[in-house]
## 1
Amino acid sequence: MAEIRRQPELLIKTKRRAFEPVWTVLYAILLVVLAILAARLYVASRYLIVPVDGHSMEQTIPDKSVLYATRNMASVERGDIVVIDVTDVGCFSSLPADKSGKRYLIKRLIAVGGDRIKCEGGVVYLDSGEGYRALGEEYLNDFRDEEGYRTSDFGEVVLKEDEIFVMGDHRGHSDDSRLLAKQGDAPLKASMLTGLVLEWSIPGSDIDGGAEQFFVEGFINGFFR
């Protein structure tokens, strides 16, 4: 009986079919890796992971907390908790620097450009164009100074359009804009604002609901608009 030999082209096709599942899996893995890298780059360009080192924002933010902040400063307003780059501000040179040599403050934004601010009798007064009004500041730490004030008095500070005034919620344990005012230095600049802390990332907030909002706003809306 004559021997039946397989044609060379049939052998090649058979080998190709054998490798197709392997290449499909490798291609899928490559797509997943690229998607993860793209997502990480995207998030890094829009958000900050903010480790807290200190007690100046207690009791709102405990020491050693980890927060998330958006780099989008378009919606920042008085009362928000913000991240400020104070690397080039001399009176904050004693603060610990990160790996890149940067120094940051995490404080509450109290006043913005054009405002006037002062503290009398332990009460902070703000004039945003309609006369002075007392701030309720329900977020303050329970600490009180020797006079029984949560915030020690300081004289009027007038902010130019590009300046800001920030303070910690633990007024007795916070180096902030009051230090600049006391030394007669210029206030912090609005351009130093680096991040707006996302409220849901603050300990005690709705973490689950916030994480969902972070995913929707940061990933889905960001990639598809």
Note: The chain has one domain: 49-223.
## 2
Amino acid sequence: MPRTNFKELLDAGVHFGHLKRKWNPAMAPYIFMERNGIHIIDLEKTIIKLDEAASAMKHIAKSGKKILFVATKKQAKEIVAEKVNKVNMPYVTERWPGGMLQVTRQRAKLEKNLGSIIDLTRLPSALFIVDVCKEHIAVREAKRLGIPVFAMVDTNSDPTEIDFPIPANDDASKSISLIIEILCQSIEEGLNERKIEKDKEPQSRDRNVIRKELETKDIPESLIKAIVEEEEEEEEAEDEVVADEHVDIASPAEETESEA
């Protein structure tokens, strides 16, 4: 089932692109029409691509890996900081310094510019970009390091450099907020499923420990003695029962001989 619908995207203005003269021909597959000199994004394509991106992000989160969100444009900063922080993912909302992905060990010095990047102890498993034209340096670094890139791609963008392009208006705050909210929900789902699986692990681990102890732990002499004595008593009781059965079988023959 799709994570959003045509009306919700329409109400958020996700369909509004840039002026026709600013378009990137590579976005042609995602453009529905032109109206008053403005390109209109095909929201049916947006729904499909958004679902693909959300499913992939959920899988990444479930595996315990990090997705770095990058949004330094004014209308996206607060939205990203608020929503992404709730799912405990790193984000950059100030200027992207060149070579940042190669110097994550210097994160303490860069905390102001890099938002929650201080919590990123290793390279992220993916990047999410709000505006690929503005964040072209981040996209280039990620591609060079083989890190998958998710991104909102407006009609002036080149989607061919993006692994998971989401055709959408990357200027309107409502559009940005809706896309980020849907993706963060998918991340939260992945994190919750991971927690459920992790909670089950101790029980399985405890069983394995107990089995190992049974295989290696010595049995106390007192316990061995008690088990032996109990089995001997049971054998004696069984012998008595068998003896009684033999007596019962022999009795009729003895009575016949005495009558003769």
Note: The chain is about 50% helix and 10% strand.
